[in-house]
Amino acid sequence: GQQLNQSPQSMFIQEGEDVSMNCTSSSIFNTWLWYKQEPGEGPVLLIALYKAGELTSNGRLTAQFGITRKDSFLNISASIPSDVGIYFCAGRPPPNGGSQGNLIFGKGTKLSVKP
Amino acid sequence: GAGVSQSPRYKVAKRGQDVALRCDPISGHVSLFWYQQALGQGPEFLTYFQNEAQLDKSGLPSDRFFAERPEGSVSTLKIQRTQQEDSAVYLCASSPWGLPAYEQYFGPGTRLTVT
Questions:
Q1: A-B interface: how many C-beta pairs under 8 angstroms?
Q2: How high does pLDDT run on average in chain B?
Q3: A15 versus A98: which is more confidently predicted?
Q4: What's the pLDDT tens digit per position in B32-61?
Q5: Which of A2, A102, A109, A110 is best to mutate for the B interface (most B CBs within 10 A)?
Q6: For a disulfide at A10, which of A42, A82, A110, B77, Cβ 3.0-4.6 Å?
């Protein structure tokens, strides 16, 4: 089935640094979403992207929907300790037979921030 | 307002037991999704409901897994004759829209451990 390759797998950064992570796929997606998950909680939606080439910001977060529809990146500027967590990309593929609306998730980028 | 809630938050079952996991979506949300998240992985799609209709169950791993949403609100995921490989966090997500249900809002999950 379709898979998303998310990188890096983990990051250890200093508070104040900028962060960049990305997701790639061999097949196209119609929608890209970025979620953050903290221990014991469900994923929380950060940014949703709906069109190829779209660039969207949410505070210190910026994400882009790749022009080929096969990739997306997420940037976090001026990281702070509460940015710690696992960041997941998720894509919604075009409808295909019985599969119509579900999201396909990457394996996550674990972010650690040193104060 | 209240988010998606799930119960129980933790469940320990002996191999062979049946379990039932409950999801209360955000009030009025049309779409409801179930995902399975193994340790260190991203969520994987199990099944999708639009109101009370189960439109996609392509992700259910075996016929031991059964989900229902009889009145188009609360949903229950049932696993019969649990196996050790069923150990995972089961996430429920809801969306105010029908397909393609662009934005999905997740509950905290139920952590199932099969011993």
A1: 73
A2: 94
A3: A15
A4: 999 999 999 999 999 999 999 999 999 999
A5: A102
A6: A110
